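Why run this: before we spend reagent on co-expression, it is cheaper to look at a predicted model of the complex and decide which construct boundaries make sense. The entries below are exactly what would go into the expression plan.
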Amino acid sequence: MARRKAAEPEPAARPLRKRELAVDPYEVPDDTESPKRRRQTKPPSTASRSKAPNNVHVDDTIQEATAEAQPTVEPTPTKKRRGRPPKAPLVNGQVATPSALRQKKVAETPIKLKGINGVDTPSRRNFADRSARRKSARALIDRVVGAISDDEGEDGGIAREIYESSEDEEDEEEQQSQDEQEDPNPTTPSKTPGRRRKATAARKRSPTPPRDLPSHEQYFYQNKPGLTKTSGNNLSSLDLLTHEEYFSVLRQIKDPHARDVQFLQSLHAESFPQWVFELSQGFSACLYGYGSKRRLLHQFGTYLCAKGHLPQPNKIVVINGYVRTTSMREILGTIGSAIDPSYKLSSGTPVALAQALLALLSSTLTTVILMINSIDASPLRKAGMQSVLAQLAAHPQIRMVCSADTPDFPLLWDSGLRSAFNFVFHDCTTFAPFGPELDVVDEVHELLGRKARRVGGKEGVAFVLRSLPENAKNLFRLLVAEVLVVMEEGGGGGAAEGSAVEYRMVYNKAVEEFICSSEMAFRTLLKEFHDHQIITSHKDSLGTELLSLPFRKDELEAILEDLMS
Amino acid sequence: MAEIDDHTFQEDDHRAAYVSNPLSDGTAAVPSAGAAPRPAKRRRVSAKKEVVNGRSEDQTSGPVDVGFLPLFNGQESPGAVKLRGELFETAWPVLEGRIQNVLREANRNTLDEVSTFLRAAEGEKGKIPAGFIITGPNIASQDLLFEQLAETLCKGSQTRFVRLRSAEAPNLKAALKKIIRDATVRVAGDDEEGDDVEVSVGQDGRKYLDYDLEALHVSLKLQQSGRVIVAFQDSEAFDNGLLTDLIALFHSWHDRIQFSLLFGIATSVELFQARLLKSIARHLFGAQFDVVQAGSVLDSVFKSAVAGSHALLRLGPSLLRSLVERQQDQVAGIQVFISSLKYAYMCHLYANPLSVLLADDAHINRELLQPEHIEAVRSLESFKTHVEASVEARQLSHAQSLLDDDDYLAEQILEQNQKRRDYLVQLLRSLHLIAATGLISTPFTDLYVTALSEGIDLTSEKASVLDPLRRLGPNEIVSLIHHLLNAIEIGSPELDLQGWGPDADELVASLAEIRDEVEALVERAKDSRKTLKSKYSAQSRVLRTTVVAQKVQLSRDTATLTDEDREFTEAIDRLADLFSRSVNCEPVTSRFLHEAWVYDSKSPYRDVFVPRPGTTLSRALSRPNDYLGCACCSKANGTVTATMPTTAVLYHLYLEAGALINVADLWSAYYALVSDESDIGMDERTALVHFYRGLGELRAMGFVKQSKKKADHIAKLKWI
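The model came back. Tokens follow.
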């Protein structure tokens, strides 16, 4: 804003600048260069070519902008002005997200400057035409973005916005600042970018992507700045799935490939004896490939037991890496209890615990089979997890089979870990659908930036509560009831996130109802809920601790019904 | 089907870890009746095995069936199956023991140097002795080294050895705890100290925190033991601050506890020093030790485990080449090489029914050979060439009997065992002799691999040994003959080759004769004041430059060979001839029945050790029919059809999309493909469920991530 204003009061300088630009030998070939270049250099060259820059401009920009952009070519000056300074829309409470605005600024600054500096009549109309492209983009984005506005994490994103590369951004920002500083000397800023343009080779844009590029070329091709253009469609018209709907529809779906999948699995099952042999020779087996390998592993476990392929005292410990709450302590605790039911983990680092555990194992004759589902799932990707697992796998009395789902799982291990694991890899593409490994609805909603619902939905809660003591169930019932009451009172909207109950109050009620006797016990129960992400807590401005449930009202009602029955 | 099963163990699926018992307790504990007879047989085997190597690991695999299956579609006789199992169980442990020996030997020098250094540094006051052990980038082999260090350094003396890995010591407290625990526990031994969190020591009954070095001090005083050696295995991975703190702390305790430090360093001491503060580095008094380079370790492992006569199975040239290349190109580590070797043994003996032929004569006999074996032999490539060769050689009846007469063939097969051994001995002797000449600089591994694939034929080879041999001078010839004789006499302990003097009477005699002759010639030449030369020696061909009256004259050395020279030339010729006659060997593939004792298949090795999960995944997703083999998708042939699994369809669309994908468009593209109008005819909600699932899977596999650039857009993450 300020910049433009600074530029406007001195129209005298402009013709001069323009002419110089036009004669500049470096500038002319730019016209034939990449579209972006063209866009930037157009103002001066067209201005010199004809006295009616408007028409030329519109043509040009239309080539650039997407189809919908055309209608918005004639905008009101006010709109344009609002768009330029990054802070304006926030103040005005405009719909446009900052991302869109900032991007525009990044993309268009040079035009703007040159437009102002280079054209005789700095009429607003002229200027408006020139920035048609910018406006079209804004219109586009305005339509897309709708009500969504998430500021966080944007900074990185905008830089590589669809229209411009970060490199250009830098250039232009530099140029901008130069313009500001060296206003009296107009040639410098335009020359500098001119040279820069030379440096970056001309980019051709063809509508059809080249076929059969090797993957790395494909990467560079698709990440070319300016190439990523997507339509403005969005999913607002689509009613997204809820957990309930997802599962109810899922239950009715019959997979036409079920038999083939079954057959494929039976093929893999034929190599069970081979795997047993490999395990007995101190190798760990790692199954990879597309599809859920959980059932295959389970089948393998059954096979191991049934055929007596294992040394006699043996235990099978299954680890589900995909369970979000998987912790090393829990894993080690389970293994410990498998070896010796009375074994209690001491405190300490996982590594120390694992050593203690291995010492215990060495003192017995038990063979432990570790079956790890999804060893590359995010809970197991945490630092230190893999090295403890490797430590376990290296023990002669531990045999390990694991499955890996992602394509880059080998990156989890360095050569030290690899040789500790002593892996043999098997391609076990099963095509089996992922079941508990994947919380599809949450996963997709997270991907779309929709607020992810807690794990499991209503069934999830029921499931969590089933494994908790009676007290916990009662407490949760109490909580749900209280939250519902608050919701009723507040005439509550759909979501319960807003309606919270006071921690103190719940505690007192819990004590009254003999759910717990001390705050310690109360906290312990709450912690359990926290761990399963079925409650959330926060403090309000006064510091009062509030508890809330991340469910919608109808869900809460359903949960309460379940709990009461 | 899947759904039903899911319900049966659903509860467990959401637990992070649980003890599984797929069967009820009773059946799990007792092997089922069908498997009962087998363990009984195995027991004898494993007992024998224990005698062989007495390794502790055996107790775990004791009564268990290793799981060799009858081959030939289950037609293989139990005897043969058993024999294969036995072969594996006897062959591999022996080899493994040898490899371990080699590895331990390789580190011996370093160990000696380190212990000498530490002993010498004992008197050093005010500084902590520190050994910097340059282990090289391969952290996988460090374990063995440090284990050995612990053994050697603790031997006899009152020394405590603590090994620290960066993973075990994330912070100062944890590191100290670990040091104190390890240093005291070993002293405690049977003292039942066990699970005490606090280390209680001292007559005064004082208790110390478990990270208080005072505890260690007291304990050491009680045990009257001197020093504590702390080894930082992967020093690069330790936090700078932690190292600094630890060293400073050790230094301040140095007057009470004698600390010595060892650092495993993958890069260089300079880099390591640059990480430390100067003030801290001043506390150290160090020396640098190098560990034997991976290349030479590989060479000796190769010699003893692959080439050595103890190796039961021969690895074929192409497999070997890829193994060795992998060692050199990727820093795979010797452990990987050993695993690969083991896996090759496993593959061969597990899956090749003809591997029974590897058994020694005592175990293999006519009865063991089933009709299936005979048939299998007849289908071998080497059988074909052998028969063709005999037809060429007009041994028609031999060829006829091979084809028709099972008993005759069986006889031939059994004879092969001896022939195989002869071949191997010949191969190794030849290689050993070549190596003994010292005229070839190629590493032994290459030499061996080439010998296997192309055979050894000195007369035809391009850059043969013979040329440099001919150019040798008389004294060198004498010493060369000396080396050769020595080699024949002693053999090669590395290769497990015994001296074969008695077998090679003729060769030894001729060599000695040539040597004597050359020596005599040298004497005679000395008498006549001339140097002995042969026509191959360089001088006879080289131009001679003389400066006469300030002019340079070029003249050919026309000096004719004297009689002695001629005799010497003749001697050299004879030697070369003799050498090339005695050193020869045919390529392994030309041997009849080599399939039974050479394992040269690269594919299981590559699949099993160098997986390509990306390619596998993208193949599964782009051509699901390859795996599913279903009729509905067979038409697709690399393109997308609606019948494909959802994820596969989405993957195709994903490939076509740019770096940023609009989910709304993705959805409409997908829905257009499977909607009511298409052959599938899915309603919108069902399609959406499928879509969700596919998208969720793509995300879980790391193909896409959320993008904040635009609403409902996702960013592409993988270009496979």
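Confidence is low (pLDDT under 50) at residues 1-122, 147-203, 492-496 of chain A. Strands of chain A lie at 284-288, 314-320, 367-373, 398-403, 423-427, 500-502, 536-539, 545-548. Bring this page to Monday's planning discussion.
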